[in-house]
Amino acid sequence: MYPFNDSMKMMNRRYTVLLSVFICQVYTMLAQDCPSKQDLQNSIQQAQKLLSSQEASYMQSLRTLRKKLNLLHDSVTRLPAKPKNLTCPNLDTPVNGRKLGKTLFPGHEVHFLCDVGYELVGSEMRQCKDSLSWSGQQPVCKDIDECLSSPCANGGTCTDEVNGFSCFCAKGWAGPTCQSPTPTFFVSIMNTSPVVGGGAAAASSFPLTHTSAFLRQPKCSQVQGTTHCTCEPGFTISGRENSVCTDIDECKLFHNGQAGRLCLHACVNTAGGYRCTCPAGYNVTRDGRNCKDIDECGSRQNNCTRDQLCINTYGGFQCVKVECPQIRNATYVKTSPTRCERNPCPADSRSCSQAPNSVSYHHMSVVSNLSAPRVIFRVSAVRMMGDTLRFALLGGRGRRYFTVQRSDRQTGELLLTSPVQGPATLDVEVEMSELERRELLGRYITKITIFVSPYEF
């Protein structure tokens, strides 16, 4: 502080001399005599008072500024460390389900689907918010209790299983839903030979000359001159004089019952029974009747290269390479595996400023003949710069199957308007435009590719 005060005193003396010279020069220019010594002293005293006042104000401003800087330094010191990862935490894939979407940046969405036989409980879609947290609740895939509809008829007991159910039938009934009476075969044959043992039952068998696996010899017994013959489960008695048991073709007999088809995909008749098969890309479930998709991407059963995305589909997979658009006078850079953003435009390039600000790519897999109408995808603005958002449906293969509707001020929905018979690949583009007083601020394009399975499961 002392050097500062000394320098200020020196400056004051210099200003006093200069002020005296200046006053004399002013009077000389006005053709007047230089003021007296008393007048000069009065003028100098007034100037010194003014200077002292300015000096005090200046010092007070410096002290106030120093306090503010100290307070700002303390507040910055107390701030939590800036997170290194500016993404939302990774979301788990629900058991017996799948997750669509891998981008974890704010504004991006993740969608969830459940396998056949399970229903989604929770949020179908979750969005990464600016606070780096997810909207909605983590969903789970709950096993559908097929026994709630009481599918087992005629007193049968239902047991819920994964992706299906099984019926324990009451006596006298058979079939997947106990819908068919059990055949009871009694063949009455008069025996003319004397009964052995004074009327006691005697076993008798018939020779079987057939060697086919679908034929069996009946089990017969004689009681008081009458022969009773029965067959093993899965066979019915036939042939001349009811002397042979023939396999029952369950695939034909129970093709469509009260609980639907015996097999979800294909049925193969076997000796005394049947087995269900699934197409390539599926495994037979534990109940032996339904089919479950194989996740080739999750189990690494694919041949996609490092620069490709592996998209799991129902019954297979797709290797997709995302490339940024080529637009005249505009350049794009990939900011995530599925998003491209436009580089800054020159100030005089109108064509560049009219190009999309960003282009996002999303891929989905659905079953054939999915019921409609239903919401397939949502596009939302995390934060708005303008006063209006507009949503529009642009070109693409399969555009006739879709329309766009608004669910709220900041969200547009892609709506499937009619079922699609697979196999098919549909492309559709959704545009979100942001405006301020009807002036375009930015365009954001979302390109959605939908892979439709050949099957309804």
TrEMBL record:
Q: Name one GO molecular function term.
A: calcium ion binding
Species in which this protein is naturally found: Culter alburnus (Topmouth culter)
List the cysteine pairs that form cystine. 114-141, 169-178
Q: Which residues form the Sushi domain?
A: 86-143
Where found?
A: Secreted, Extracellular space, Extracellular matrix
**Record bears the keyword Disulfide bond:** yes
First and last residue of the signal peptide:
1-31
InterPro entries referenced in this protein's UniProt entry, alphabetically: cEGF, EGF, EGF-like_Ca-bd_dom, EGF-type_Asp/Asn_hydroxyl_site, EGF_Ca-bd_CS, Fibulin_C, Nephronectin_domain, Sushi/SCR/CCP_sf
Tell me the SUPFAM superfamilies matching this sequence: Complement control module/SCR domain, EGF/Laminin
Keywords on record: Disulfide bond, EGF-like domain, Extracellular matrix, Glycoprotein, Repeat, Secreted, Signal, Sushi
Please state the protein's primary subcellular location: secreted
- Under which name does UniProt file this protein? Fibulin 7
SMART domains linked to this entry: CCP, EGF, EGF_CA
Q: Which domain of life is it from?
A: Eukaryota
Q: Which Pfam families match?
A: cEGF, EGF, Fibulin_C, Sushi
- Ranges for domain EGF-like come to 143-179
